[in-house]
Amino acid sequence: MKLYARGAIDDKGPIMAALYAAKLLKDSNVKLSKKVRIIFGTNEESGTEDIDYYLKKEKAPKYCFTPDAYFPIVTSEKGIFTFELVQKLENNLCGYKHRLYTKRWQIKSNIVPDYCECKIIHDGNSKLLQVFKDEGLKEKYRIDLESHENHIIIISRGKASHGSTPEAGENAIANMILYLNEILDFQDSFTMFLKDFSQLIGKDYSGSKLGINFWDEESGNLTLNLGIINGNSSEIRMRFNIRYPVTVSSDSIVNNINEKIKDTNLTFHMGNHNPPLHFPKEHKMIKALKKSYEDIVGEEAELLSTGGGTYAKLMPNTVAFGALFKGSEDLAHKANEFIEISLLEKCIKIYAKAIYELAK
To answer: 290-294 long-range CB contacts below 8 Å, 24 or more apart?
Structure first.
């Protein structure tokens, strides 16, 4: 049996598993030497205000786990930061106005966008209209066109995915810009932007074109996701989300980006930043969680790394622990999200055992 719901695996299902685990221990009259508390985070996807407020009012826990990732144990979380690349425009589209944007609900940079739209207002210029007739390029970049009396709506489509795994998606913004770069053969500040984007970013989610394709053994490769674009006749503004390896300095990433864009009209603007996290395997909390998983599941608890951001980065002494089991499909932030009831029950047992090991 499966439970289908938004948040079934990320993170409403795991929240219920933690609550039932605590109730299981309470009903069993288990004696614990430490206070157990469940803390509900409320704005993980859009900031850190909830944890900032909590830590002003309460002490950080001595040991803590967040059920917001994978089993067995995530001991390394990549650093995360957002940034914008902005370009001012002049004399774009030979005087024709345009607007370039993602869907209104696409307000997060940590999701690979599956839709992008560009509106070009024209005066019936036949030369401009003619360039949009190439069916091969429309198919290549998944483009649909809507032709109106005084404007064209260009729609590009992709495949949504979590920003930490951009390789699992297809970026509709990249499709749009690469398409426009191929069909528009005149030169102005807008087409120069299209060219710079194609050379420096394109569909590259490793950051190699920007010189930031870092890697380490502890946490793997850097990932780059372009999640939001907004543009009009005077400015293009793009927001990116980067997940970088735990041994890499964020300054080196920023410096490399600025070096790559120095000969363009793009400017760099830093956004939010969460530094990387790493727990050694000898840590007392890691040993306790490892024992809990192995006792319930009956197999060795592998230590993992992730590019996803969890509350472990925000709350001291915290590690991500479940709730996605090895071999299960990761449907976080995707359509038809579900969790198997049998696995939800197993989560409850693992979390009850973990609470006991940490608080006995």
So the answer is: 290/72, 290/73, 291/357, 292/350, 292/353, 292/354, 292/356, 292/357, 293/71, 293/72, 293/73, 293/350, 293/354
**Does residue 163 sit in the same domain as residue 245?**
yes
Strands 111-112 and 161-162: antiparallel
Flag whether the pTM goes above 0.70. Answer: yes
CB 96 within 8 A of CB 128: yes
Q: pLDDT digit string (tens) for 45-91?
A: 676 789 999 999 999 999 999 998 889 999 999 999 999 999 998 86
Q: Which tens digit of pLDDT belongs to each residue from 257-298?
A: 999 999 999 999 999 998 999 998 999 999 999 999 999 999
Which CATH number characterizes residue 227's domain? Answer: 3.30.70.360
DSSP state, residue 276: -
Q: Tell me, yes or no, whether 91 and 60 share the same domain.
A: no
Q: Give every CB contact of residue 151 below 8 A, 6+ residues apart in sequence.
A: 119, 120, 121, 122
What is the distance between the alpha carbons of residues 131 and 124, in angstroms, rounded to a whole number?
A: 13
CB atoms within 10 A of CB 15: 16
Give the burial class of 82: count Cβ atoms within 10 A of its Cβ; 0-12 exposed, 13-18 middle, 19 or more buried: buried
Domain span at residue 72? 2-77+278-359
